[in-house]
Amino acid sequence: MIIILYGGLGIGTGRCGVSPLEGVAENAGGGWSEGKSFPFIWLFPLQINLYNRRMNINNNANNVKKELLVRIAKLQLDGELDSRKINKIPTEMRPAGTAPIGCCIYHDRELLRMRLLARMGISVENYNDLNDLDDYAREALSREKPTWPMITVLHEACNGCVKQNFMVTNACQGCFARPCMVNCPKKAIHIVHHAHIDADKCIHCGLCEQNCPYHAIIKITVPCEAACPVGAISKGEDGHEVIDFHKCIYCGKCMRECPFGAMMDKSQLVDVIKHIMNGRRVSVMYAPSIASQFKCSAGQLERGFEQLGFTTVYEVAAGADITADREAAEFTERMKRGDKLMTTSCCSAYVRAVHIHVPDLDPCVSETRSPMHYAAEIAKKDDSSCVTVFVGPCLAKRREGFDDDLVDYVITAEELGAFFEAKGIAVSKLEPVVKTEVPSASGRNFARTGGVAEAVKCRLTDPSILKLDVINGLDKEGMKKLKYYGEINAGRVEAKEEDGNLVEVMSCEGGCVAGPCVIQKVNLANVQLDKYVKEGK
Where do the 4Fe-4S ferredoxin-type domain residues begin and end (predicted)? Predict the structure, then answer.
């Protein structure tokens, strides 16, 4: 008999030191202590990646993240963030009698303590359990600017997932055709009643998985490593994941896909609320994708920003109009001088990917600045002493903000949603602001794949010079296509007729509406974005 154990079934026994494997074995085998022996297949469901799907944003890790952000914001707005009340949050969220997620409720609470650091913008690598949370709150409130690095890894939460491999389940029928064995290029499969894979010979090509008619062979991935398109994540000596920041493009895919919430961004919401409460003039610039995250009109969203305490509100779509105008002019000039191609420059994760990993394509990246930069330029021109806050869907923009002197802070859709909830603001019920200036529909459409390229196209005086190509998402295949265009630019590969001379690249499949820090499912976000675009001029 073979028992397949799915991770999580043994968790919740309430006994520290007893593994989930032992807990399930007691249930499945009638008592581990009785010495019964069975062949086991140990399997974590979230490590199975049969269809290369992204994890649904509706999950417990995101729910906990939101609750922590809301609780912190409420305490800060009440002037009590650095009081003893913050120390009670882990116990309030995991009270006595709650079924533990990990080995025990005390470990759950300790992880919540560490997660609170990241939500206050502090690296968990600096955690000292001798310090109280109110000590860290005072540290967060006293800092003058966000600290580096902007991603922090909670090793205590990291599962130390097994190395990527292929595994034969008990669905294998040991069939007569044996396509897995016949098609294996390294003869790594032999069959005795059912298939067995020789790990020493396996090259992880996946042909066995593709050829099994029963889908009995599955690919087990390390989710964060599999999601990273540039190989910036690997296991350290202790088996936990480590980020190589020299390779990282800050796309946020590792954070989005980690089922244990071990990859965490460091929030800047505490800093923003602090400036608002201190009476500073704080200008907010919201990306087109943010308008897709809330079921309200642009006027209602802007009224919501006013009620949060922001002094002035800017649509980044206005900056997108400037970007599109300048990219159209730049593209025309490049084609006149004989350049082979030009790529867009709005997605900062993509731009960083080229700079680091595809230097042959670097000369082709548009020299035009991003919509965020131009929106910040407008805000600083209106009020040079204001604090500028960009609201977007991702980590890459936060990384770009570190390098842009005009952008003081970057918060995400998640953090904005938490801020609204902490203040008790329902944006869909607000009286909308009467807008006197409205960006173009094409500028507002930057938030989805193809939107940037279309905005450039409609501004060309001679659209016939354009051959458009779109790279919809920087996964492994997307990076291969980037390198292909790099080869074309370097002259090592001849361009084909169907290859583009204007290439739009979005790090996230579907565009910014599918960023790693959004709060709305992509299909629903696109519906809301359609409404927002139609309101554009």
Answer: 193-223, 239-268
